[in-house]
Amino acid sequence: MKNTSILRVWTGAALLLATGVAAQAHQLWIGANRYQLSGPGEKPGPQTVYVHASWGHRLPVDEPPDPLRFAGYLLFAPGSAPAPVASGEGGYRVARLDLEKPGLYWIAATYRPAFSTRVKTADGRQVYLPGPKDEAPADVAVQEGTLISDHAKTLLQVAGEGAREETLTQPVGHTIELVPLKNPALLAPGESLPLQVRFKGAAYQGDPVEVTTENSVATALGEPPRSIETDAQGRVDIPLAQAGVWLLVAAIVELAPPELAAKADRVRYRCSLTFAVPAPGKP
C-alpha cells in the first residue's frame, strides 16, 4: 500500500519510559460485564448485558472516554440493520442491551478524529500537545503532527437454537478493523484465532501490521501484552493461550494528504477488538 507505514502500538510498562508516549498509545475499546450471554439452564428470552467504553490499555477497565470525542455506539444484530444504542452521558458511557435473538452481535464505537503534535520544549523535552501543528505555541519546536482516528468493537454471543453467526465476519464500516474468521467463543485456550485486517473498506494488503494482544488473566498476573504481525494480505493467527477477556489493538499510519500539510504530517488509524474465550467446561 503506497505511502503506508506501520505504527507499533506500545502498551504496558514500556509506555512509561518515554515522556508523553503514554497519552499517544491510549486506545478506545469496549468492555462488557459478560460476553457469552446464555448457556445450559439459563432462562429463555432476552439476555441483558451492560457495555462500557474505556480509554487506555488496561483490562478490565481503564480511563473513561473523552465525552467530546466519543461518538456513540452502534449495535449490529443478526439479520438487522445497524442501530444506535442509548448510553449514559458521562463516565464510561454505560449502555444496557437486551438481546433477544440467538446469535452473534457487534457493538461498535468511534472517537471523533483529533490532532496531536510532538514538540521539543526549550529545555529539550519531547512532549505531545493536543491540537494541530499550526496551533502549537511559539516557544516550542514542532517535531511532527498526527491526526488520530480511533475505532472500537466488541463481540457478544447469545447461544440458543437457530443461532446466527453471519454477523461474525460482517465489517462494521470502520476505516480500520479486525475481523475474526472464527467465533472465539467456540475456541479453547491454546487454539488460535484467525483474523483479517480491513482498511478503507477492503482486506488490507501491504507491509505487515502489528497486532498487540492483551488478556485479562495475564494482565492480572502482571504479564505484559504481546504482539504479532500480519502477513502481506493482512491475515494473522492470534494464539489464545488463556481463557478470559482479550483486547487486540492494531494501527496503520499514512502520510497526511496535501490539504492537511499545515496541520499534520501523518494520519494514524487505530482499532481495537474485544471478546472472551470461555474457560474449559463453561459455555
In short:
With 283 residues, the chain is mainly beta.
| Average pLDDT taken over every residue | 88
Order of helices and strands: EHEEEEEEEEEEEEEHEEEE
Rg, alpha carbons: 19 Å
Strand tally is 18
What is the SS-derived class?
mainly beta
Subunit arrangement of the protein: single chain
- Termini distance? 41 Å
* DSSP strand content: 35-45%
Poorly predicted parts:
1-24
Count of alpha/pi helices: 2
Dominant shape? globular
Task: Estimate percent helicity.
Answer: under 10%
The main pleated sheet reads as: 11 strands, mixed
Count of spatially separate domains: 1
Description:
The structure is a single chain. With 283 residues, this protein is mostly beta strands. It has one domain. It has 2 helices and 18 strands. It has helices at residues 21-25, 216-220; strands spanning 4-5, 27-32, 47-56, 70-76, 83-85, 95-99, 103-111, 114-120, 126-130, 141-158, 176-180, 192-199, 202-203, 210-215, 226-229, 235-239, 244-255, 266-277. The strands form 3 sheets. Strands 1, 4, 5, 7, 8, 9, 10, 14, 15, 17 and 18 form an 11-stranded mixed sheet that branches. The longest helix has 5 residues, at 21-25. The termini are far apart.
